[in-house]
């Protein structure tokens, strides 16, 4: 796995209509929570599990192992493959043909995210406020983090009733 | 250097707000900024000081903002996520408040690959939305991202940017809504040449209730030459020059292009300020700061003609 300073927009290898049901299979529950806690207690098991996650998600989504997965809220197009690693939507430099300002041969990953989310009627996911990434989680398993509830508050909604939601700080 | 006036007071009034842009120099000469600010004094409500614009090294926007304020113009300090992690960003925001900078404009920033140090490490620890959110947390909650409390809170006005013309068009109004939820109280836009597309974007903002919470300031500027026209259409990401304007500029003799571009700019301003939901214009005249009074006068935007910072 390479944590290169300027990643390249990645086109997911599975269609959005498969990715959403796949997530439903992995959705957190008591069994997964117990399993995650068990795996974390065994360093060797943790390494194997994380390697498996990395191989799978690297192929499918260009995963860079940030450890706090945003995929379910981005139409399963990874925002960490944006050269600016934007978590909250596309920058203003997307050109009229939809290409990335850093590499004109590649399509903006946020445009891919928008199309995929919209195709699954999940466009509203892109309205979520994504809080800053915890850089200590790089190379950690995002699945184990997710199952143990560490992703709570990673993305939050705003509405007319709550127009200025507070950021959860430590 | 206290007192009334400046961008906050202008936004609270009912007149058309005017801001302009000052690009700091590549050297340590403070006179350049002082001269630019002096040319704008009395004609704008505030001047933006860019943060290493286009990822090219310049005097820091914090130093530039202080110089602009000393010259009697309210400053909008631009701050990007490109070169600083969250520690440096929060530190510069606090420092700006301590030095009397009353407005900050927070953005993601251009990628270093596009600037004069393509070998630099791109930081992007936070994105533009998260930086706005961080600033609101500092000011309104009085907390750092670490949770540590600030005894004296900053009080700047928080702004951001948006490009209404970049795809996906359907997402651009909602993206600003998100920045407003994060804390943006005003927004300055990319160059507006395509007034119809811009008006549509503002209409969507009004439907989403965004214009009630955030002042929309439209970016404008004259096209001075056919070279600048090709540059804007070809190399600047997300700028759209409609074919009618292109034909108009190409249809006059070479020595008339600049005057025609200025006339078109003045007409654009006059149209923009009539759009419901538009609070003002942000003038981008790159190096022709002495032209700002002329543009403002010709556009018929009433000014006091005196300084906005005491």
TrEMBL record, chain A:
Residues 47-135 form the Methylene-tetrahydrofolate reductase C-terminal-like domain. Pfam families: DUF5981. This is Methylene-tetrahydrofolate reductase C-terminal-like domain-containing protein.
TrEMBL record, chain B:
One of its GO terms (molecular function) is FAD binding. Gene3D superfamilies: 3.20.20.220. InterPro entries: FAD-linked_oxidoreductase-like, Mehydrof_redctse-like. Its cofactor is FAD. Pathway: One-carbon metabolism; tetrahydrofolate interconversion. Keywords: FAD, Flavoprotein, Oxidoreductase. It holds the Pfam family MTHFR. It comes from the Bacteria. Belongs to the methylenetetrahydrofolate reductase family. This is Methylenetetrahydrofolate reductase. It comes from Acrocarpospora corrugata. The lineage of its organism: Bacteria, Bacillati, Actinomycetota, Actinomycetes, Streptosporangiales.
